[in-house]
Amino acid sequence: MAEREAERSVSQTVRAQLALRELIVSGGLRPGERISELQAVEVTGVSRTPVRMALVRLEEEGLLEAIPSGGFMVKAFSERDILDSIELRGTLEGLAARFAAERGVSSRDLEPLKECLNEIDGLVRQEPISMEAFSSYVALNARFHALLAELSRSPPLIRQIDRASALPFASPSGFVMAQSALPEARQILLIAQDHHRVVVDAIENRESARAEAIMREHARLAARNLRLALRNRTHLDLLPALALISAG
Amino acid sequence: MAEREAERSVSQTVRAQLALRELIVSGGLRPGERISELQAVEVTGVSRTPVRMALVRLEEEGLLEAIPSGGFMVKAFSERDILDSIELRGTLEGLAARFAAERGVSSRDLEPLKECLNEIDGLVRQEPISMEAFSSYVALNARFHALLAELSRSPPLIRQIDRASALPFASPSGFVMAQSALPEARQILLIAQDHHRVVVDAIENRESARAEAIMREHARLAARNLRLALRNRTHLDLLPALALISAG
DNA sequence: TCCGGCGCTAATGTATACAGTCTGAATTCA
DNA sequence: TGAATTCAGACTGTATACATTAGCGCCGGA
Question: Do the beta carbons of residue B101 and residue B207 sit within 8 Å?
């Protein structure tokens, strides 16, 4: 073993999990397609035991589905599933925002959030948003949402949001980048950024109801945009990617 | 192998998972206590491989926590964690109720819910509620909440509710039964049952906002009762049990 | 030609052997 | 006497061998 000397620090299980997740979200395996252990062994380069562990974790994560007769397949999501997931996440994040506002946060805690906001501002200011900028936006947006969840100071809620976010919003694939060329993209991003700003303001002023409402609205906007996007391009393959951009 | 001929139908992994979960929620292992694989092997009677799978699943489920240096320990929950979990579940169930109301359900779909309601009615009618009746109530209440989640027709949401419900509400242990003797128990059950009735009515009449609001209120009542109960008896060991009764 | 049964192959589920590492204690030196 | 270092034990992480089962194709009969 130890064929690859680099990055031997992390466990084989984690490496397998990352590799398989990447394979799934990048579209290397079609939804509904079976994923055999030996196949996974070849892909990841580790033994069957860590591969199995990774598969179990990915199942719990929601990316895989157990086949009754044994083994796993890539989980397939309907359009409705993804729309629901967006609203679900919005609801959870609304609760997180409410908790943050109710519990009260110091301005010191809000600092990272505001930094994030400013960085995003710098990105969306560009007129046609470059693919690189859009890529950065995706990362920053994820960071903002993660920070917001943390602000709730509720481990159970943070955990749940993590679970809810993991799935249909996973892939920063090529499809996503392609979306950045759309003329509406910048508009969506500007509105989403406005939502971000409002929620920070609401939390700062302890307006819990407003904080919760805006995050729900944020999700509703995302869902609406996804629905619109689906009118134009009906490739189901694009769903995860579209969900990502729509989730703003 | 096959030392126990009975129940060879289910896989070793599932058996191990059930046995270990029972061990944890029944209090056989204290929160924070480490659970070694060999120990688990002795308890479950299966080999290390299925035991490991079960441990990973239980970690993803939230009952266990990974120790950085390796292995797992029983997860410890603070009072705040449990209160948050109750509110979290209420929020998710509120969304489920809203989905059900928005999407519209046939009276045929509501039939099982109403049956459940009637059965609970029969139980709470008794003046001092017997331990057996209370035990039945716990089961029926869980059934009601599961049915409600199903009514949302949203697999992602159902899954999430399942996850949120699993944890601090797990153990139907002896402690729970002891609670049934409390004089306030019946009052709590009656109010909770009223909530149940209202949500079914709201869904039937497509009042989505009302359906959502009542489930949130339901959770808030539960949280308040738990807080009150904690004033009297401050044993942290009782938390899961108290959460269960308070979750009504 | 079609249907059914039988056998094979391959993949999963399980068990166990092996290696690396962390913990804890005991011993030794300052 | 205290602290540090080393050694031993155990436990996890990993790899692989074994068994069982499900799926699938082929062959034979109607």
Answer: yes
